[in-house]
Write a structure and sequence with these properties.
The protein is an alpha/beta fold. The protein has helices at residues 67-72, 97-106, 123-134, 144-151, 171-178, 195-207, 225-231, 246-255, 293-298, 316-331, and strands spanning 92-95, 111-117, 139-142, 159-163, 185-190, 212-216, 240-243, 259-263, 280-285, 301-303.
């Protein structure tokens, strides 16, 4: 006799509890217990399984983007995935006749290679070639268009060199160096942003025997090929110390026995009225804004440069040069006694 549609068989259990759906639409994918595949009696199944808690739980694998491709290549030994190494800056580029010549004269061991434009054949370029050959440094003639691709619109004068960079100083390196300098002279640039000004300050600081130049890490000019060109070799001899907090560094220098002298147009003193013969830190403000408020409050003295004309202020590199040479003047030995 034909069974009416929807009438359960004698072996069926009907819808599963808690699901509200029968086995045809619910999540239970087990075979129908009334079918041939599921017709075994419960007594034929053996004792119930006891879970083995000593085994580590299985972590489901996340599906691949293309699971078919994964199974197709599962029998192959896949090469290990190696992350690319983090690039490290092992060389720096300097350009300009003076910068390259001074580097070859003072630090030839740090020069890796010299490149000269094919169109340059004059005494100054030949001098650079002779210096490179003297110190066994590789020299290469290069097409002017290739130079332009490397340096862009920079005024390279047809000469560049790849060099090993001067190891940067940290704040700890600076404090350590102070212990070996009898009367250290430092320059702090509080937010100078023009690389030409930084290069000019480095050049004057080197000429006046400054121990180092301190700059902030953020929102300030750092040493670049432009700075190196303007500094004409001073960036390779005068360390630049990039610090996180200028005020904190100034306080550490004060604790080390140095006097902090800031430069500001409204300073109450003139440079010659302050003793600059001992350990001195000269602090210069940023272009336009000058010293920041906290920086000024940290200074022991604030000096101004006398101005007799109509300009409101001096360029920061010019002002730094004037103060540095006032320190040199005061530190110079007096005339010998008769």
């Amino acid at each position: 006799m034909k069974r009416p549609r929807g009438t359960p068989r004698s072996g069926d259990r009907g819808p599963q509890r808690g699901t509200g759906r029968g086995p045809e639409r619910g999540g239970d994918r087990r075979p129908d217990r009334g079918s041939k595949r599921g017709a075994r009696h419960a007594s034929d199944r053996g004792p119930p399984r006891v879970p083995d808690h000593s085994r580590a739980p299985r972590v489901p694998r996340a599906p691949d983007h293309d699971d078919r491709a994964h199974h197709a290549h599962a029998d192959r030994t896949a090469p290990p995935i190696i992350s690319p190494p983090t690039p490290t800056k092992t060389t720096e580029t300097i350009y300009g006749i003076h910068a390259v010549r001074i580097m070859l004269e003072r630090h030839p061991d740090r020069v890796i290679t010299v490149r000269v434009s094919e169109r340059r054949d004059d005494p100054r370029v030949r001098q650079i070639e002779d210096l490179a050959k003297k110190h066994n440094r590789p020299i290469e003639r290069i097409d002017p268009n290739a130079l332009k691709q490397l340096l862009g619109d920079a005024t390279h004068q047809g000469v560049l060199a790849e060099i090993a960079p001067l190891p940067p100083w940290t704040e700890d390196d600076l404090l350590t160096a102070l212990g070996t300098a009898p009367s250290p002279l430092l320059v702090v640039l509080d937010g100078v942003q023009d690389p030409h000004n930084l290069g000019a300050c480095l050049r004057t600081a080197d000429a006046c025997g400054a121990l180092a130049v301190v700059v902030p890490k953020d929102r300030a000019a750092q040493v670049t090929p432009t700075v190196r060109k303007v500094a004409v070799g001073a960036a390779e001899t005068t360390p630049v110390v990039a610090v996180t907090n200028i005020v904190r560094t100034l306080k550490l220098l004060k604790e080390g026995g140095l006097w902090i002298v800031g430069a500001d147009a409204d300073g109450p003193l003139l440079p010659h009225e302050v003793d600059l013969k001992g350990g001195i830190v000269l602090v210069m403000g940023a272009e336009g804004s000058g010293l920041r408020h906290l920086t000024r409050e940290t200074c022991d003295w604030v000096v101004r440069l006398p101005q007799l004309g109509s300009v409101e202020s001096l360029n920061v590199s010019v002002a730094a040069g004037m103060l540095l040479y006032e320190a040199v003047r005061q530190r110079a030995p007096g005339p010998p006694s008769a």
